[in-house]
Amino acid sequence: MKFNIAVLPGDGIGPEITQQSVKVLRAVADRFDHEFNFEEAVVGAAAIDLLGDPLPETTLELCKKSDAVLFGAIGDPKYDNDPSAKVRPEQGLLKLRKELGLFANIRPVRAYESLLHKSPLKPENIEGADMVIYRELTGGIYFGEKSTAEDGKSASDLCTYSVEEIERIAHLAFKAAQERRKKLTLIDKANVLETSRLWRKTVAEISKEYPGVKVEYLFVDNAAMQMILDPKQFDVILTENMFGDIISDEASVIGGSIGLLESASVGTKNALFEPIHGSYPQATGQGIANPIASVLSAAMMLNHLGLKEEAETVRLAVDLSIKLNVCTIDINKDNHYSTERVGDFLESVISDTEGHIVN
Ligand code: IPM
Ligand code: MN
């Protein structure tokens, strides 16, 4: 089959990890006789440097017309330390999410058996942890009205949600729960926030349509603690934009490294696949960044395109690399492989139809 894939490497380690995913996808195309047409475009700080705009029109157009978007990372410290900067790299990603209508960000988190002892958490507490976070992505405080008073002495970010915005992602999360262990946890702050109360009310209403799914409600502060104490209790987590951002970084500790966590951002028309980690500027160009989060995001992309066996092949290759410790320094401190060598290994496993490497 033929697919057009927009590739947005972005900033920092974005280009080097995305390159490994493209390599892996090319191996998949060869093995399964597909045609993937990759087209690259700039976004984030790279796009500001080049065109003065974190999301140039040409990039947006390319994304709109492609079958899927593979996204690297975004962010540059030169903007983080300049509060008065008028344009910021992150605006590129936020606008892209909004323009493409990517309202649901899906972030699976699991504990890999061979990495249990690498997590700072107790192995017996995380063994078997397997959850998926449904983070609302185009609403809430990220997108509410923003202002700073003229005298610079106060600022405001408004948090707003409509019932419709809650419903559309809640249905996706309930459907996912039906296919999994049939438990959904809504994370909110309903003891304080009006928007959270609307989330609870809406989710309670929708839950009637999914009688097989057990619903639990947790305040976000408690949820942050539970994530560390007993992550196995979670199956599907549903939450608003900012809580989802924070909780998912926290949850990455369970997997042993944030460099392993993939995500899919979906809407009604377009879909974008990106690691949950950031641009890791300190590591840029050193060949130490873990490409697996990006490669697993590419596997989610294959699933999304209906290529199930292909996605499974990529996942098995990743499992093997982790089992054999063909890993970057975040996981393999003593004998680490470079970003590129991990990519090469995955490519060779996927191309190895005879099973030489596996056996
Ligand atoms: C993420 C990132 C982004 C977010 C930033 C880069 C805007 O942290 O995808 O989790 O906050 O959504
Ligand atoms: Mn984040």
UniProtKB/TrEMBL annotation:
Top-level division of the source organism's lineage: Bacteria
GO molecular function terms noted in the UniProt entry: 3-isopropylmalate dehydrogenase activity; magnesium ion binding; NAD binding
Boundaries of every Isopropylmalate dehydrogenase-like domain copy: 4-346
Pfam families assigned: Iso_dh
Record site: Important for catalysis: Y142, K189
Primary location class: cytoplasm
UniProt subcellular location: Cytoplasm
Keyword set, alphabetical order: Amino-acid biosynthesis, Branched-chain amino acid biosynthesis, Cytoplasm, Leucine biosynthesis, Magnesium, Manganese, Metal-binding, NAD, Oxidoreductase
Residues engaged in binding Mg(2+): D221, D245, D249
Enzyme class: oxidoreductase
Any one GO CC term of the record: cytosol
EC code(s) of this entry: 1.1.1.85
Pathway field: Amino-acid biosynthesis; L-leucine biosynthesis; L-leucine from 3-methyl-2-oxobutanoate: step 3/4
GO annotation, biological process: L-leucine biosynthetic process
Cofactor detail note: Binds 1 Mg(2+) or Mn(2+) ion per subunit.
Claim: Secreted is one of the keywords in the record: no
Residues engaged in binding substrate: R97, R107, R135, D221
Coiled-coil intervals, chain numbering: none
Annotated catalysed reactions: (2R,3S)-3-isopropylmalate + NAD(+) = 4-methyl-2-oxopentanoate + CO2 + NADH
Subunit-structure text: Homodimer.
Protein role: Catalyzes the oxidation of 3-carboxy-2-hydroxy-4-methylpentanoate (3-isopropylmalate) to 3-carboxy-4-methyl-2-oxopentanoate. The product decarboxylates to 4-methyl-2 oxopentanoate.
HAMAP family linked to this entry: LeuB_type1 (MF_01033)
Family to which the UniProt record says this protein belongs: Belongs to the isocitrate and isopropylmalate dehydrogenases family. LeuB type 1 subfamily.
This protein's name: 3-isopropylmalate dehydrogenase
Organism: Christiangramia sediminis
